[in-house]
Design brief:
Elements lengths: L17 H21 L6 E4 L2 H15 L4 E4 L4 H10 L2 E4 L9 H15 L5 E3 L13 H7 L8 E5 L11 H4 L3 E5 L10 E5 L14 H4 L7 H15 L3 H21 L4 E4 L9 E6 L4 H10 L19 H6 L6 E5 L6 H23 L1
Parallel strand pairs: 2-3, 2-4, 4-5, 5-6
Antiparallel strand pairs: 1-7, 6-7, 8-9, 9-10
């Protein structure tokens, strides 16, 4: 027992006492902010522990509602690929050298699933933008292929890498299931959301309680939800998001210019249809890990699709599906805190690091 004035947002929003009602109101205010940012109704937003849980909940719910084959490309996030493989057979979508899927390939995959299993797929996945190379997918066209008169297939859109970086009107998009995460757009870690199309009912992934209108069991993380709401509210204010997108594109254009001025460096992904904050490069003649270490010594944090630079023991499936060399890849991303000085530091350090490593290799 405690005086409610001292509890802030730590109370259980499922209780009817004063402190519980305060927590409930705070949680629903955050839900209103997230739903307004995504242009959907508050009831469509299910708070989760992050993007991975939202994706798993989408796959689980779709598989329970309509058992069958999953349609998924190799460039999808591992949370999408692994949860789909665990739920049943997967028909894999091919991608081109830029990492883009062809809407015609989606139609063909749906027909293939029908032939092989005797029924339409359970779920088609199409990420909004790729988390490694930044390629933006033809999401509206894919949804259209799944809405043809003789086709009725649920569509899940992984928008974790895209939300907060490009405008998302999920109400107009009309996807069945969309996953988002707070920490990718400046909010706190440990909170995300699954957006469910109006009228669609799916079984909860987490059971054991009636939270989130019986759609996700567990004590709601009210504090993290408040942070999520505050982050999207800040982005939605005035021209903040448009300004951040424009700044991110300017910064990544400068990164690309500096990197591509070095001989033997190429860009991976679709340079014309890409997220504004991600650049992925291939570097001829040197492997990723020493480049990352050299940049780190210069104060620049980067990442790679190489097995030596991640928790995985395998090279990036994304880059493998695109037919490029994951062992010599470098992924750069910018954000709201990136400064022109950071870009200048990369432009000064990257050519020097690469030249030094190539010299060691040829010595």
């Amino acid at each position: 027992m405690a005086a409610w004035q001292d509890t802030g947002i730590t109370a259980d929003p499922g209780r009817v006492h004063t402190e519980g009602r305060i927590a409930r109101g705070t949680l629903e205010d955050a839900r209103d902010q997230v739903s307004a940012f995504l242009h959907v109704r508050p009831r469509q937003v299910i708070f989760t522990s992050g993007g991975a849980e939202a994706i798993n909940a989408a796959v689980w719910g779709a598989a329970r509602a309509r058992p069958g084959t999953m349609v998924c490309s190799a460039v999808e996030h591992s949370a999408v690929r692994d949860s789909s493989a665990r739920s049943g057979p997967v028909v894999e979508l091919a991608v081109d050298g830029r990492g883009r899927i062809d809407p015609d390939a989606v139609s063909n995959a749906i027909e293939r699933a029908r032939i092989e299993s005797g029924q339409p797929p359970s779920l088609v996945h199409c990420q909004w933008g790729n988390h490694e190379v930044g390629t933006v997918q033809p999401v509206p066209e894919v949804i259209d292929r799944c809405r043809q008169p003789d086709v009725s297939v649920l569509v899940h859109v992984d928008a974790v890498a895209a939300a907060g970086h490009v405008p998302l009107d999920l109400g107009a998009l009309d996807a069945d299931l969309v996953s988002v995460s707070a920490h990718k757009l400046g909010g706190p870690p440990g909170i995300g959301a699954l957006v469910v199309r109006r009228g669609l009912r799916i079984d909860p992934f987490l059971v054991g309680g009636e939270q989130e209108r019986a759609r996700r069991a567990g004590f709601e993380n009210v504090g993290a939800a408040v942070g999520f709401g505050a982050a999207v509210a800040a982005l939605a204010g005035g021209d903040r998001m448009a300004d951040e997108e424009a700044l991110a594109r300017r910064h990544t254009d400068l990164l690309r210019k500096a990197a591509l001025s070095v001989a033997g460096v190429t860009e991976y992904g679709d340079s014309d249809h890409r997220l504004p904050h991600i650049v992925c490069l291939g570097i001829e003649g040197v492997e990723a890990e020493p480049v990352l270490l050299g940049l780190d010594q210069a104060g620049i944090a980067a990442h790679s699709g190489s097995s030596c630079s991640s928790e995985s023991l395998e090279p990036s499936p994304v880059l493998q599906a695109m037919g490029v060399d994951a062992d010599r890849s470098l992924r750069l991303s910018v954000g709201w805190s990136t400064s022109d000085g950071d870009i200048d530091a990369f432009a000064e350090s990257f050519p020097r690091v690469v030249a030094g490593l190539r010299a060691l290799r040829s010595a």
